[in-house]
Amino acid sequence: MFSLQDLLGQDQGDQALGQISQNIGADQGLTSSAIQMALPMLINAMGNQAQGGNAGALTEAITQDDGGLLSNLGGLGSLLGGGQQSGAASGILGMLLGGNQGNAANQISQSSGLGVGQVANLLMMLAPLVMGYFGKQQSAQGLNGGGILDMLTGHQQQVQQAPQADQGFLGNLLDSDHDGSSMDDIASMALKYMTNR
To answer: How does pLDDT run across 165-177, given as a tens digit for each residue?
Structure first.
């Protein structure tokens, strides 16, 4: 599960990739490369949170979403325009990455060739899609809290065991001892990029 096509299906994945590329003003090839780094990172982060103190909040968020975000890909563009969806995306990233948000954007930027502001916007759009994917799985399978946590840790293991997984990249990205600052806030980075375009 390292591309939007894997996450959403071929047609919706292609549509989402096109929308994200347009929204961040980047080539689709570079955007796709960045997404293939970001998705395992977000899934790995969800697995970490499923085993930590945010497990309850995470299962509640997944249960409440139940895949609704995936049914309205037209809402992707509004994630960059402020308002409720943008706030929700920022909240999801804060839950998953904490103070590592800036670290994540910087590492993906250096590895993909996209600007940090572009990556920040990309993460703002991907986080709700990943949450929506797991919400859809939870709804389809009728999972309770324990089942959701098992699902998340199972996907995390798939990410970590994949041949292309970069353990150093995932590990450095989610170092729990990394202290973030207000300058690391993804929402601020994304807004700054959009304002200066």
So the answer is: 555 555 555 444 3
